[in-house]
Every structure is written in structure tokens, then in C-alpha cells.
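Much of what follows relies on a compact textual record of a protein's fold. With that in mind, consider the following protein and its fold in C-alpha cell form.
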Amino acid sequence: MNLPNSITMGRIFCIPVLIWMLSPHFPHGRHGEQEIVASLFFILLSISDGVDGYLARHRGQITTMGMLLDPIADKLLITSAYVALIGFNPQVVKPWIVVVVIGREFLVSGLRSIASTEGFTIEASDVGKLKTVIQIVSVVAATLDHGWYAWHIGWFVLPVHLFAAVGIYYTAAVSIISAIDYFVAFWRKIDKAAAKQRTRDNEFILSRRKKKNTPAPAHNVTQP
């Protein structure tokens, strides 16, 4: 197993540790330690997603296994974090929001699977990339909100709770928009593929008809 795939597998194996950090079983120290440790750990795992992709491209180590595992690791990381946050910070992370996020992932995975069987791909859109960034920010903000309502840094006040609430609801909205965007892109490609297939079928039928309607060449018959 090459280095990029090892990083991806490591991210998958670290997901149970993240869930443990966002649970009551994590040993409590001083105020805020659990939230900071869990946030930094999640950020580290999120950064590893970009690292393994960068290494795979620049080292020429893009493999079928990596193409399969990388999106699975990403989806497991995000969905596991949101599910854990339902119990860790239920005031901000509502179950219906998690259902929307997970449902979107199932929908996109299903569309990509169908597209693959039909012989084409659906590229990641700008909305999908924005969704990923917002998800990371919202998870970190919701985790920190468990320990602080706001951060007071001298005269500056950082509204942690506001960032968490806005980030979570914004994530739900962008997830819905992203799902619609992927569905529209999928439908357009399916429609184009169907149109091409109809054109081929029509050309085949016309060619068969031309062959049937072409008169057979006359043969000279000599009389005895």
C-alpha cells in the first residue's frame, strides 16, 4: 500500500477516536480542553484529505483503491462528526440537519454510481467544494460552542455560538443546493446519452431499410 492510501486508511481508523473525543467518556480536564482537542483532531483529519490527494497526484500513485477509499473516508468523517455532535451539542446540531447532510451524501453517491455504469462521470461542482469547506467550519464551531458561547480576546468578541448556529444551518442549505446541482448535472448527461443512443438507433434502422430497398443486380440469362 502506497503512502497516499495509507493516509486515507489512517483517516478511516481515526474516526472512532473522534467519536470518542465527542462523547462523555472522554476524560475531562480543565474547561474547554475536550472541545479544543476534538477540534484540532478533526482539523488534522480534514487536512489529511488534501494531503493524500496531493501526494497521489504528484507521486503518480493514483490507484483504483485510492479512488474508492478517499470519498468513503471523507463521507465517514463528516457524517460521523455530525452524528456525534447531536449528542455533544444538541442545542445547535439538530437531527433533521444531520439527516439532510447524510441524505445528500447518499444521493450523490448513488448518482455517481449510476453515471459510472452509464460510462460518464459527474465532476465536483463549485457548490460541492463550498459545501465541504462550510461543513468543516461548522463542525469545528459546533464543537467549540459546547464549551464557549463567545471568545473574549481583549476588546474583540468572537461569537462562537453565532458562528456555530449559522454554520450548521448554512450547511443544511448548501447541502440541499448541492444535491439539486448534482441531480441537474446527472439528468443533463443522462439526457445527452439517451439522445446519442436514439440517434445511433435511427441511423442503424435507416441503414437497414436502405439495404432492403436496394434492388438486386440483374443477371444475364442465356437461352439454350
Observations:
- The CA atoms of residues 138 and 167 lie 5 Å apart.
- The longest helix spans residues 160-213.
- The chain has six helices and two strands.
